[in-house]
Write a structure and sequence with these properties.
six-stranded mixed β-sheet; Aldehyde Dehydrogenase, Chain A, domain 1; globular; seven-stranded mixed β-sheet; alpha/beta; about 500 residues; Aldehyde Dehydrogenase, Chain A, domain 2; 15 helices; 2 domains; single chain
Length: about 500
Amino acid sequence: MFIDGEWVSARSGETNSVVNPATSEIIAKVPKGGVEDAKRAVDAARDAFDKGRWPRMSPPERASIIYKLADLIEQNIDQLALLETLQQGKTLKLSRDSDFPFAVDNIRFFAGAARCLEGRASAEYNGVATSIIRREPVGVVAAITPWNYPFLMLAWKAVPPLAVGNTVVIKPASVTPLTTLEFAKLTDKAGIPKGVVNVLTGPGATIGETLVTHPGVDLVGLTGDTLTGRRIMELASASVKKVQLELGGKAPYVVFDDANLEAAAEGSMYGFVNAGQDCTAVTRLYVQEGVYEKFLTMVVERIRKIKLGDPKSRETDMGPLVSQAQRLKVEEMVASGLKEGAKLLIGGKRPTMPSPLNKGFCYEPTLFSDAKQNMRIVQQEIFGPVLTAAPFKTVDEAIEKSNDVIYGLSSSVWTKDIFKAMKVAGALRFGCVWVNEHGPLVSEMPHGGYKQSGFGKDLSMYTFDDYTEIKHVYIDLMNENRKPWHYQLYGPQ
């Protein structure tokens, strides 16, 4: 682990194994950190914030170091992308051509954007003093990152707080810690001072909860499932600690009968990105009655073309799920859909794979039709390559069904009618609505959820609202010993 600028083992001496999901082979061992390790990391981050140079650097100085970090990541992108694929199971073409280039772009954006923080105008609002707004870093940020996009979410959760002068303790998911450890090496090489970046590996039940409850941590940022988000809010409430949460999703994909069906069918394949382990992924197809059967036929045709295999091969479209536990969860949800009466159109089982991939955690891309709104597969996040489909008649019915889940992260609407598109986009209770598209994000625009998909924003200038405090500074201009209003405290008017 990387604590206070040094590489250290866990105090217990214990380790965890990191498994390649494609073959189930152990590819690394990392320290199994515990409570004492977490406390040491927080102490290092606290000391670096309270006494160190990083929060007191000028924005251009911090930005120059973060730009160097981005350059180092870019220089090592091939090795990092391969390591991401080995530990997580996603295809190399996804990690190399999407995750890492986007992460580098994000990091460069955050470095520059942190130089442009704004407050409201300074002015003499009461006529006798000047009021100004200061934006200041919150302090020590605990960044808890997920296993589906280990490095990309690291860029979103750790770099914005760093860019505005915070120090961080990063806790990657236990099954995918390797690229986060490489990130720590590169922060050191870029010149970020010791104690500013700390990385802990180990179980969330001990490390995560220690970070959330530690009085030295000022804010906890999490990308993860909604259940974990609820637990963090519960623990953080004891110290009224700030939290920033990007949680689960159950994205509706609304296709009207006037849509470009070819484009919509192609776009629906985003339901299988990263083997469906993506909280913005397409999950619920709502298709207008007149084109329902035709559209599902088009979707099935495309699903049949998805190539499962070795994620290191650029010919592979979909790799394994991240773990055996995740595959078992997906299988249980699929069994639930069958039991509740949904119609299985394709998939729904483990594929036959050649050795050594037959020991991995692959699962076929799956589509259910005629899924009722109250079914578990419609209401709950599956986080696997499973789509559901249901017909609708009217615009209002499409909106009602789309909104009828606890989640509110992403959604899309497909139609050639701009008026219809704008009406639906305005009515959907989701943090992102794509029109005639699904999936693309840009550094300049915010990403975050409504409802139980969390609060706070990743990406864009809006993310800095989470990682800065707003301070009012009041400067007297009268230079008088006794002010006119002092009679309200004592003495005559």
